[in-house]
Amino acid sequence: MIQYKNKELHLDNISVGQLSKDKATPFYLYSFDQIKKNVKMVQEVFEGVNYHISFATKSNNNLYLLEELKNMNIGVDIVSKGEFEAAKLVGFHNDEVIVNGNGKTLEFLSELVDFQPKAINIDSKEEIERLEQIVNTRQKEVSVAIRINPDVDPVTHPYISTGLKKNKFGIDMDSAKGIIEKYNSHPYIKIKGLHLHIGSQLLSVSPYEDAYQKTHEFMLSLKEHGLEFVNIGGGWGIDYEKNGNSFPLDEYKDRVIPILKNINLEIILELGRFIIGNAGVLVSKVEYVKETPYKTFVVTDASMASLIRPSLYNGYHHMYPQFEGDNTEKVDVVGPLCETGDRLAEDRDLSIPNHDDLLVICDAGAYGYSMSSNYNFSFRPAEYLLKDGEIKEIRPREDINDLVKYYKVNK
Ligand code: LLP
């Protein structure tokens, strides 16, 4: 997707200079071809399995992209009222919607009971009790899945590990058994599935193998109680560092797929990053390069407001200057916000760009825009989709009206 041609960077064979013409920077740009390739890779791994992909909307909530995914027969995993409304607007069928997250409010649960999603994933005993109150009063059935916390170490950044017993998510297996016994013949709560998501940005197969092996017998034992599907979560990592360390698909196919096939139930796979992460870049402009006696700072118009992963997780995002240089220097790439943590890269080897050159920040398709903010009253960037050689604006850049629309001036 990204390569230099005649010393200028090209994305899907179009120069970034050309792509950026008449566009305010920074902006997000997604490649439809790359999304399709990623989906195809997943399909190849799951060939022969009865499965369904549920896209983790939290990784990217652009409605046009959701629509493209829907057209590829992909459903959505949602975690909030906002994502729920987005899914409805795009027209996802209730059967294509899985509801995740903890702390679901009574109002939200009640709306979900009307909508009848494929499953509400239950995160705790307290949550199923909450849901019980609602369905008993309304005398309406609802399908749920019980989220298990299998207590396995996903070997990833601690902020994005979810399946350890010290993490806030899911229910330990013993308590889950108790819940399933209790609600097994409930008139309105129908336990149709089990769910386990152990973390995000995993680059090894072993944690999945451990988690599914640990819960395998439990899954089989629930078949006679009417279990219909197992939601195996998401979390497949991507090669942010561009050093060939990508998710080992072949190994997954050899070691995990047989376990899943053996369960012989419908499998739901909740991927976000693997589908959209490397399909998106953040195109920024270099304002200038600041030299100090200690360091060189490349100052861009992208910031922690447009991409927070480097500041929040020390996340690495590879960067390409618009023009290929012969030498590199160690630099910090920083944004313009009033915060030391507004740093996109530290001590990075980069060929020094000129002011006004573009700088392309890679692998920003997942948890990029969706985690952006208005810090310092920054405008969120525009998003564009490159499809069939055409570039289309799929969300405009915010302007001051978006930021002040709550403010009524009564003069
Ligand atoms: N399913 C559940 C229940 C999840 O909580 C998540 C992500 C996913 C699926 C999708 O995971 P993925 O396939 O995208 O790894 N903001 C962090 C990532 C947080 C992930 C939260 N849950 C980041 O920027 O790295």
UniProtKB/TrEMBL annotation:
Q: Does the keyword Mitochondrion apply?
A: no
- Give the pathway listed in the UniProt entry for this protein: Amino-acid biosynthesis; L-lysine biosynthesis via DAP pathway; L-lysine from DL-2,6-diaminopimelate: step 1/1
Catalytic reaction annotation: meso-2,6-diaminopimelate + H(+) = L-lysine + CO2
Looking at the record, the residues that make up the Orn/DAP/Arg decarboxylase 2 C-terminal domain are 28-365
The protein's name in its UniProt record: Diaminopimelate decarboxylase
GO biological process: one example: lysine biosynthetic process via diaminopimelate
The molecular function terms in GO held by this entry are: diaminopimelate decarboxylase activity; pyridoxal phosphate binding
Query: What residue stretches are annotated with the Orn/DAP/Arg decarboxylase 2 N-terminal domain?
Result: 33-276
Give cofactor(s), names only. pyridoxal 5'-phosphate
Q: What EC number(s) is this enzyme filed under? A: 4.1.1.20
Q: What lineage, starting at the top, does this entry show?
A: Bacteria, Bacillati, Bacillota, Clostridia, Peptostreptococcales
Which Pfam family is an annotated match for this chain, by its short name? Orn_DAP_Arg_deC
What does this protein's UniProt record list under function? Specifically catalyzes the decarboxylation of meso-diaminopimelate (meso-DAP) to L-lysine.
- NCBIfam families the UniProt entry points to: lysA
Report the domain of life of the source organism: Bacteria
Keyword Metal-binding tagged = no
Q: Where does pyridoxal 5'-phosphate bind?
A: 235, 270-273, 367
- Residues that, per the record, bind substrate: 273, 309, 313, 339, 367
Give the family this protein belongs to, as stated in its UniProt record. Belongs to the Orn/Lys/Arg decarboxylase class-II family. LysA subfamily.
Q: What is its quaternary makeup?
A: Homodimer.
Q: Which residues form the active site?
A: 338 (proton donor)
Write down the InterPro entries for this protein, in alphabetical order: Ala_racemase/Decarboxylase_C (IPR009006), DAP_deCOOHase_LysA (IPR002986), De-COase2_C (IPR022643), De-COase2_N (IPR022644), Orn/DAP/Arg_de-COase (IPR000183), PLP-binding_barrel (IPR029066)
Keyword annotations from UniProtKB, A to Z = Amino-acid biosynthesis, Decarboxylase, Lyase, Lysine biosynthesis, Pyridoxal phosphate
List N6-(pyridoxal phosphate)lysine occurrences by residue: 58
